[in-house]
Specification:
By secondary structure, this protein is of the alpha/beta class. The protein has a single domain, classed as 4-Layer Sandwich (Metallo-beta-lactamase, Chain A), CATH 3.60.15.10. The chain is built from 9 helices and 14 strands. The strands form 2 sheets. Strands 6-5-4-3-2-1-14 form a 7-stranded mixed beta sheet. Strands 7-8-9-10-11-12-13 form a 7-stranded mixed beta sheet. Helix 8 runs parallel beside helix 9. It is globular and about 45 Å long.
């Protein structure tokens, strides 16, 4: 299984998961032309995408999905609540996500998360041999998340903000409360706590994603990763807004 990111942050998100000829795009928060450019940087033509999955309706995750999918007849999966918020299903290629979906070699399992969207989910994706978790855009830990994100080979996990930087930063008070609330985004400390609950010796790679450009710093994230993973040998990476991260392989 191979994983790559088109970019990660408040200005757009997209994650590629590939196994053999099966290639999935999770979220597309970039306008069509930008999405195609970023796919090209990863060596992917839109026609090669097997399906697109949407976590929730916020623009940094869904703004480019319809244009990409409709121009290239790509199946799209989202929860009923997400479809309602982005304007409903508009073609036979748009599917309501009610449970696990098998797309060729990959099984996609949606997991409900606490976030301020209509019906948000994140995903665990399984190939015949590997298990990858994508977990961003949640404001607090939940029993369901901890239970469903076990025994992973790879994980992309939100490290959105440092609590002190958020408190002292430029955001207006209402936005600070939203980001730091139970239905906002994970702080570095929350992400580290979650990682302690779900990390195992099986875990090969952890990618810190969805970092705030105003309220976080890579050095703080690296320290939180080291503290959470302790003696586990898992590789640590950070996904950036500008570049995401290039293909990595779960061996």
């Amino acid at each position: 299984m191979e994983i790559a990111s088109l970019g990660s942050g408040s200005r757009g998100n997209g994650t590629l998961v590939r196994h053999g000829d099966t290639c999935l795009l999770i979220d597309c928060g970039f306008r069509y032309s930008e999405a195609v450019k970023r796919l090209s940087l990863r060596g992917i033509d839109p026609e090669a995408l097997s399906a697109v999955f949407i976590t929730h309706e916020h623009s940094d995750h869904a703004s480019g999905v319809k244009a990409l999918a409709e121009r290239h007849q790509i199946p799209v999966y989202a929860t009923r609540g997400t479809w309602i918020e982005i304007g409903g299903r508009t073609s036979s290629e748009h599917h309501e996500l009610t449970g696990s979906v098998q797309v060729q070699a990959l099984q996609v399992q949606p997991v409900t998360v606490p976030h301020d969207a209509r019906q948000p989910v994140q995903f665990v994706i399984e190939s015949p041999t590997h298990r990858f978790g994508l977990l961003s855009d949640l404001g607090s830990l939940s029993k369901t998340v901890i239970e469903r994100f076990q025994q992973l080979d790879g994980l992309s996990l939100e490290f959105n903000h440092d609590v002190d930087m958020l408190a002292e930063g430029p955001y207006p008070q209402f936005l600070k409360q939203r980001v730091g609330g139970d239905f906002g985004h994970l702080s570095n400390a929350q992400a580290a706590t979650l990682l302690k609950h779900i990390a195992s010796s099986r875990l090969q790679t952890v990618v810190a994603c969805h970092l705030s450009e105003q309220n976080n710093a890579e050095a703080l994230v690296e320290a939180a990763l080291d503290q959470a993973l302790d003696h586990l040998p898992a590789e640590r990476m950070i996904a950036t807004q500008a570049f995401g991260f290039d293909w990595m392989t779960l061996g």
